[in-house]
Amino acid sequence: VKALPASLTLLLAAAACSAPPPSLRRCDVRQRDCQLDVFKALHELRGQLWDPWTTAPRVLVLTPEQYRQLSAIELGPPRSSGSEWTPDLDATQADHRWFNENTVAAYWSGRKLVTLVDNQSSTFDSAEEVSLLVHEYLHAAQDREFGLRPWGRLLTTDEEMVRMALLEGEARLFQTLARLTLTNVEATAAAIGDQLQRELTSVRQQSQSAPALHPHVRRRLPYPIGGRFFTDAWKRGGSPGVNRVFVEPPASFAELMLASEGLPAPAARSPELCDPSFADGNTRWLDRDTLGAGLLYATLLALSGKEEESWEASLTWRKDFMWIYEHPVHGTVRLWRVHAPGLGGSRLGAFLSGRTTPPRLEGEDLLYWAPDLPDFAEALRNSQRCR
Amino acid sequence: VWSWWEQPGRWPAGAVARGFLVGWLAIGHSAAAVAEPAPPPLETVPTLELESGYFARGGPGPRQVLTNLLRLASQSAFDQLTYELALGAMALFESGGEERRSNTTVGLANLALGGRYHVGSADRLSANAGLLFMLGLTSIQPSPLRRAARSAYSHAIAMRGAWESWLWAPDGGGGLVFPFGLTHAHQVRGWRGRAELKGALALSLLTDPRRTAFGRVVQLGLGYDLQPRRWLALGSELRLVWMPTAELYQAQGSVVPYLWLGIGRWRVAGEVIVNVDAPYGWLGGGQRMWATQLKLGINL
Predict the structure, then answer these.
(1) Can you tell me the ipTM of this complex?
(2) Which of the residues A12, A177, A239 would you substitute to probe the B interface, choosing the one with the greatest number of B C-beta atoms within 10 Å?
């Protein structure tokens, strides 16, 4: 009993002098100790407690060739979409090529593994590399929490871009937060937002000269767009605000693009579009997809070569459907109707209305059909909005 | 598990208070019909006990956590055998950012049901050992809600120094728990002294490879209390929980000073749980978690 006050005093003194919770530090990300420190620090950044039964995924450093081999095994075919404007490649090949040429790190859900690509110039203890590991470990956390497929069903291309923007956007937010912290810059929401805005501007500039425009837009744009969205959510609601985005996700990629401009989501619900009807009865339905505002931007940019105008015009997107059919004579038939009220009044409106070949602006909708034959144009025009 | 957001505003203090009151009123209601007999010894495990834990943290990510465990213990036809049941629920209130919009996550604890065999005398040396079956109620399918739920359960585990962590282990699953205890009562200058060693081995069953199970957990507690009066006990317990299947941290130590008050058949207890070392404690770069616990029990 007499020793109790002394013991308590000793305990309090020890607590007062104890080390604070782990914070990020620069370390060699190839070392397991460093990986575990980053993993723990990420919990702190996210305002979460360590879960005793979670494990930090292993980290492997691969050569670019080893990475190409792994990605060839692991990458499944993406949902086909929009690839008709990249005639040299189909969507799968384009995505694989994009991954091989642009990826510096990846998290592989099936293997619970993080890979970093050694590009010779890599310095593994830099702020860049540590924050890159934060990014990949955040994907591991997402995988643990909701399996990287939070909506558990086959998604349209637009929904897939939203999904990617959410997964990558959250990772980008904490990666940027980590990088600023490691470089002794105060990681405020404004500072993170500035960084991501610069990245968005850069991705848009690169779109003008990207060799494969659609993969570039599909794969690169979700990072800064999603990052900006999460930065705003984090600024407004902290960690609970970030979590809330996954529970009530944006309805479309257009919503994310509008948010990046500081514009609200469209208030009115868009009308449903009905499937086209063919008079001949020989055309077999294959697939239906929604490409979204992201690929409308890519399409308009590919057509006009005007980046700013294409971006502005794509913000008018409200709904689209692409129908894919098999025709006994003409092969694959693609019909695309984009409902975009306001597109006619945009700077590209006159250009799109005046075109003699698809896509063409008719009323509030942009219509595209391929092959360019009157029957298909007629079928698409018949796909009136459902009443 | 349920989760919802509320408009910006003050902390949901009303909800916290209601959480405490609902369970306590239930106990009070049960006790009202019972005639007042001679009070049992203070260390007697109450027939019905509500254990409410509370934690709050300010700073950039403010949060409050409330855990409630209802424990039922019943004597069998044989004096040496007791049955017990534990069921509980927790709530995590979080807010942050400029708007301070709060998020509430509520979930059940895993359920534990079993019995213990007691030998010896409560006045001198006694021992007990038993078996509990754990039924997983914390499991939640992969979904965005699972993130908030896992965070909430992590808090509940940390608030108790990972003690009885199987009750709050996320991803549920079944399990077996083998609890045991050894108590020695004696006199210290006219006061009653009591030394207690208690522990448990828990094993999770039917693990799903897509989920995390708690695997194996061993916990040991060494406590001592003094009873200067029949109705008052003051003591402390040192706890160590070993989680051999965990990767980052495998052990958690905590100190739990406590105070018991006996009022007739009622027992009111207050505890402060202070985690000592990492992952949840003050030393070694831990996350500095603590909690208070208030217990209200009655012997029916």
Answers:
(1) 0.80
(2) A239
